[in-house]
Amino acid sequence: MKKEIGLRIKAAREAAGLKLQQLSDLTGGQLSVSRISNFEQGLREPDAQTVMLLATKLGKTPCFLMFGSQSSNEISAPVPDMYRTSTTYQIVDQYSAAPPETQTAVDLLLAPLSERKLLSGTPVESVMTALEGLAMDGLQTIKNGGEKPTTSDLVKRKIG
What we know:
Blueprint: H1 2-15, H2 20-26, H3 33-40, H4 48-58, H5 62-67, H6 86-97, H7 100-115, H8 124-143, H9 151-158
Helix pairs in contact: 1-3, 6-8, 7-8, 7-9, 8-9
């Protein structure tokens, strides 16, 4: 998975017409040229916070950098139908129909999962199972217009 993420980071950087140094500068020096290069070569895997930073600076979504798609219903790694539940389809449909600011909020809610290594090196079906409970709570709260839960509250509640 490191290699695929790295290739997408490099492709997005090149598509934006940026050199490694320019991307490093865009991050305000948070990411050095060598660190970005290590990501692109698949030598290191970026954590969720780094994926969010790179996605923002490259004009992409975190979903694109992680899975190769701008929306979660086009994840490049296929999910076998036997692992797709009605809840999974509902999550994907709600995410796809949501306005960009809601999608960004959901991306932020899900970021801690990759920090806990649920998104790195595990089968997609395991990730989908882990996402169902967390995403449904977050989406339902946002949809109902209630007080938006913090990421840490949701993570503690679901995988804590």
